[in-house]
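Recap slide: site-specific DNA-methyltransferase (adenine-specific), sequence and predicted structure.
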Amino acid sequence: MSAKTKLELTWIGKEHRPRLEPRILIEDEKWSYHSTSRRPEDRFDNVLIRGDNLLALKALEAQYRDKVKCIFIDPPYNTGSAFTHYDDGVEHSVWLSLLRDRLEVLRSLLSSDGSIWIALDDNEAHYFKVMADEVFGRSNFIDTIVWQKVYTVKNSARHFSSMHDYILVYAKDAAAWTRKLLPRSGELDASYTNPDGDLRGAWTTNAMQARNYYSLGSYPITSPNGRVFTPPQGTFWRVSEAKFRELDADGRVWWGADGNNVPRIKKFLSEAKQGVVPSTFWPYSEAGHNAEAKDEVRKLVAGEGDDVFMTPKPERLIKRVLEIATEPGDLVMDSFAGSGTTGAVAHKMGRPWIMVELGDHCETIIVPRLKKVIDGNDPGGITKAVGWQGGGGFRYYRMAPSLLEKDQFGQWVISKSYNAEMLAEAMCQHFGFTYAPSAEHYWLHGYSSETDFIYVTTNSLTHEQLQAISDEVGDERTLLICCKAFQGTNADNFTNLTIRKIPGAILDRSEWGKDDYSLKIESLPLIDDEAEVEGEPEAAAKSRGRHRKADDAPSLFDAESDA
């Protein structure tokens, strides 16, 4: 095989990709929540989105591209129970396509030094690894964590009692990503003592000998009591004779209480790393287990989580991920929010967060859980470990409906649920502008640079109106105009204006009216080997002031106008 041959995983429907509509988000203030007290370090702009998570991610792209430091996702494991409509081959294909489409958007949201952590089990982890190598690049795969999710053996298991899950870790750029050290445990520090009263403080020792060959490590050593030591057969001293004498003169060699033991090198606590290098095996004693996670949910939302979440993740597991991958203030995301553990842990640890979840439990489980975190009424999980006492808040968003809908004649028109402000924001999304309406210029709804702007109107513009706008824009700026129509002029007559008709300008950009790209396989049409497999979009949230509220201005179609 050629060294340049590229290995790829193939599956039915891999070549088919959804054309996602970049929706806008509407805040539902009924479910948003904020602490009554405010401290400088509290974050109130955290985002919880209820809606299809692929559409949500697409909506987040414009504002959060390259800004998320850590993504943790716990997608459906594809155990077979959720895929009863499909045979085995198509089952894997559907799952891979749905996850691939999400990974591609998630990658765009990661910062250049960011990382993504994906929890999986043996059903799909190895297929997923090959597919994720294509999305992120094999060189950006960091490692696979083995997490011990249960602590008792299941004697009824047919073959083996499964006790672990995997967490696959990818960086957007492995060369730029740096892992943090885990906090040192009190037990580890307690292993340092000071039996000889060394003024440099507590210490422990490392062996002098090792099996690695070292050409300068075969000399004899004489103890203070005259006993001679040589490296045991097949081993070598770790340091040269000159270096050993230097260490001994500095009091860094321990000969035992009677000065007659095999020498060991002192390692002082004051000089030790201020943390522990993380390993790839996380026992339940350190990172929690499934039963612990279920108990955390039940205590916060009595009864609600019993049937919804069979295998939630414990707060200690997410805490460990965030300790390794983030610092306070770094943005954290989870687009499969489940019971809301990622947001709860990020909140307690001083990390701003974004979560997306589709089901009713967004309101019956996640919101009540976060309210208790914010009010300081959640004594469980990592609360005591991080000293959490409450504070901060979040905003709750729903997805706006599709921008275009068909009229009675089957023609695509702007949805009647959109008012002028919503339309302007939606067009900014479609053309890559930041929505920021100006109080000074009626024609300025957003910008893509310091000199490039966008104006959205459902009116039909005349030559005189366009000329007036062109004169005001001036020679140093450019303006994209999205309007219903324009009359009495050529679109190229104004060098500082670009004119596009709506909805025609965006008609071929997206799949209109599609609201469900979910991972609930029963909602997908049955397919055969030749059929198209569609992916799934996600909608997202923006900051306060850039989202419409449910009771905002009336529809564009309420008033009698050219709109």
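The two ends are 62 Å apart (CA to CA).
The longest helix spans residues 88-109.
(End of recap.)
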